[in-house]
Design goal:
32% helix; globular; ten-stranded mixed sheet; 2 domains; three-stranded antiparallel sheet; 364 residues; alpha+beta
Length: 364
C-alpha cells in the first residue's frame, strides 16, 4: 500500500472525472458488541433458515449480521429532514425532500421507500408520470439528470424500476457486516401465567392439562397456561472479527451522463461519500448493538486499476464539505409534498391483471 494522499477537492473531483482514476474506494471497519470482545450478538433471522451462517471450506463459520440491502436502508434516511421538535439535520439540504401524503394526515418520505423511485408508493402518487419520464430518459439516452433532480439517492444506493420501465442502476455505495468464526448459541424460556385460571373456573382442569406445554393450543396462545420455549436462537459469539466492509464504486459513478454531466457526477459522488463515511447508529436489532473498535481505526483506501492501494484520509467533515459544494454547483431538486392516489394504485393492480391475462393467452 502506498502512502496516504492529502485529501483535496481536486483529488475528489478526479475520482468523478478521470476515466483512468481509481476503480473504487474501500474501507474495513472492525466492530465490537457494546459488551466487548466475545459478547453475544443476534444476527437477523430469515424464513426457513434462521440465521444466515455459511461454512467455508476450512470449516470457518461466517454469519451475516447486516445485509447490503439492510445497510442501504439504514444509510439513506441520514438525508431525511428532521421532524418537528427535532434538531435540524444539515444533510437534508443535500437532497430534495419529497413527502407523500396518505391516509389521515400521514406522510412517508421518498427516502423511506424500500424500492426508492421504483417503489409502488411512487407509482401510486402524483410522482408517477415524472418518475416514469426520468426512468425512460435514462433508459433511452443514459441521461440521469432528471433522476438526480428527483431522487438522487436512487443513484447512490441503486434502483431497479422492475415493475414498469425496467430501468436499472447499480449501487454506488455497498456496505455489509459479517461476523467471522462464529459459534451459534441457543436459549430456552418458560412462560408462567400470573393466575391459575382453571382454579378460577375460566376453563376446566382437564382443558388446562391438555393445553399446557403446547404452544399451538388456543389457551397457550392467549397466555392462560404454562408454555416452555426451548432451543430458540440465542445469538452468536464471534471468535474472529465483526467487520463492516464499505465500497464506493467509482467505475459505475463515472458512467453517469446527462445534462451538466460533470456536475452531476460530482454531486452524486458527494452524496455517496457522505453516506459511506457518516457514522451509523449501531443498534441493528434487539441484542445487536455494535460500536467501532477504538483500537483499530477504520482506513479508507483508493484501489487503482492495477490493484495498487493508496490510503486516503476520508472523514465525515471532508465529505460533507465536498458534498455541499457539489450540491450547490449542480442544484438540488425542489422540496415538495405530493399526494398518494388510491386510483393510481388500483390502476397499477389492473395493469398487472392485464399482463397476466396476455401471458395466459400467449400474446406476451
Amino acid at each position: 500500500m502506498t502512502e496516504a494522499n492529502a485529501i483535496t477537492r481536486d483529488l475528489i473531483n478526479s475520482w468523478a472525472d478521470n476515466p483512468k482514476g481509481p476503480v473504487a474506494l474501500t474501507c474495513k471497519q472492525k466492530l465490537l458488541p457494546v459488551e466487548g470482545e466475545g459478547g453475544v450478538i443476534f444476527p437477523p433471522t430469515y424464513a426457513d433458515i434462521g440465521y444466515n451462517i455459511d461454512t467455508l471450506s476450512d470449516g470457518t463459520k461466517v454469519a451475516a449480521i447486516d445485509s447490503v440491502g439492510s445497510q442501504a436502508n439504514r444509510m439513506e434516511p441520514i438525508f431525511k429532514a428532521a421532524k418537528s421538535g427535532e434538531a435540524e439535520n444539515p444533510l437534508a439540504k443535500l437532497v430534495p425532500q419529497i413527502d407523500i401524503a396518505y391516509g389521515n394526515e400521514k406522510t412517508v418520505s421518498i427516502l423511506e421507500a424500500g424500492h426508492r423511485l421504483g417503489d409502488a408508493v411512487i407509482r401510486s402518487s402524483e410522482l408517477k408520470n415524472e418518475a416514469q419520464a426520468a426512468f425512460k430518459l435514462f433508459l433511452d439516452t443514459g441521461d440521469a439528470s432528471k433522476l438526480a433532480k428527483l431522487a438522487p439517492t436512487s443513484l447512490v444506493f441503486g434502483v431497479w424500476d422492475s415493475r414498469d420501465t425496467q430501468a436499472k442502476f447499480p449501487r454506488l455505495v455497498q456496505s455489509v457486516i459479517r461476523a467471522w468464526d462464529v459459534d451459534e448459541l441457543r436459549r430456552s424460556a418458560q412462560y408462567n401465567p400470573a393466575l391459575d385460571y382453571a382454579a378460577l373456573e375460566v376453563f376446566s382442569e382437564e382443558d388446562k392439562q391438555k393445553a399446557e406445554g403446547k404452544a399451538e393450543s388456543p389457551l397457550a396462545q392467549r397466555g392462560f397456561v404454562h408454555v416452555p420455549a426451548t432451543g430458540a436462537h440465542g445469538g452468536v459469539v464471534a471468535r474472529g472479527t465483526i467487520e463492516r466492509t464499505i465500497t464506493v464504486n467509482l467505475v459505475a459513478l463515472r458512467k453517469l451522463d446527462g445534462e451538466n454531466a460533470q456536475s452531476l457526477r460530482r454531486y452524486i459522488l458527494g452524496l455517496a461519500l457522505v453516506a459511506a463515511t457518516e457514522p451509523l447508529d449501531g443498534f441493528l436489532r434487539q441484542g445487536c448493538l455494535l460500536v467501532p473498535d477504538e483500537k483499530t481505526p477504520a482506513e479508507w483506501v483508493a484501489v487503482a486499476r492495477d490493484g495498487v492501494r493508496t490510503s486516503v484520509g476520508l472523514s465525515t467533515a471532508v465529505t460533507i464539505d465536498y458534498a455541499e459544494a457539489a450540491a450547490n454547483k449542480f442544484g438540488v431538486g425542489p422540496n415538495r409534498p405530493v399526494a398518494f392516489k388510491k386510483e393510481r394504485a388500483q390502476a397499477d393492480l389492473k395493469e398487472l391483471d392485464k399482463k397476466k391475462e396476455k401471458k395466459a393467452k400467449g400474446t406476451v
